[in-house]
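thread from #wetlab-drylab

HS: before we spend reagent money on co-crystallization trials with zinc ion, can we at least see a predicted complex? here's what I'd submit
DV: go for it
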Amino acid sequence: MAEMGCSGTEGPLPPPAFTNNPPENTLESEHWKHRPPYERQSHEKVWPVQFRAYCLCRKISYVLKQDRPLDAKFCHCRGCQVLHGAPFQWAAIFHKEDVSFDHGASGLNFYSSSMNSQEYSTPTKVSCAYCHTLIMDEGRNTCLLFPQLIDFEGTLDEQRKQRDQFQPSCHIFYEQRIMDIPDGIKKWSGMNEKTQILNDAGHPI
Ligand SMILES: [Zn+2]
Ligand SMILES: [Zn+2]
């Protein structure tokens, strides 16, 4: 009984694929794949790994060289709410040199909201092509990572101590918040210190 579909045992052999294309690493437009955070490195040899992070399906992983970010923030903007399907975003900022993806750019999807494009171009939102976990917002020089993905190790107390290094210094776009956060941390109405400081209830101070 014949079956539809590709059995792989019938018909002529497929032609040799892509023989006219230059190797990937010679394409000018793909140089970014050979720079941090996508450049492939032997982590343990190059630097001591502080943390490892995984997407939900664990096909994507990266390591961090530092045990704390340059800064961390909670962002309450509407875009972050929609993108994360959450009341707000928790983002930690690292230099690109301090982040290294285990499989380079392989298995990643990109989305530039300013260009409305899936072509790689910073700033871009990076996610797992398989399970679609959001991995980071990549800027020109820094990565805004989402610390929920980091596998903190040890007892729950030890994990909490490590996570404390990622506590945010401030909330931004607090004006657009879904809920009040009475944590006493500084709150900006908009993007940064050029905007108004608000109290936990969202009133200007
Ligand atoms: Zn995944
Ligand atoms: Zn935001």
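DV: Confidence is low (pLDDT under 50) at residues 1-23.
HS: ok that's useful, forwarding to the group
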